[in-house]
Amino acid sequence: MAQVAVLFRLMPQGTDTDLKAVAQEIPRVVPAGVTIRGMQVKDIAYGLRSLLVSVVMDDAGGVLDSTEHALAKIPHVESVEVMEEGLL
Q: What is the rounded distance in angstroms from the CA atom of residue 39 to the CA atom of residue 51?
């Protein structure tokens, strides 16, 4: 089965959201078979920052959606967006 690399952008609820605490929750919520490759905080504007999360997963039906929904359930995460997706 093919592998897919996905870059998610997690937007916090506000400028005072602790992105380190959000990052610590990610390994606990991602579905089995999803490998976290990296995380990076990115400045947006006016003190707002996002958390970029790079993962690798099998190209199986529903894995991308279940990962996106799991990330969206992390406390203080306003939204989750798929920024990039590609086959490895």
A: 7
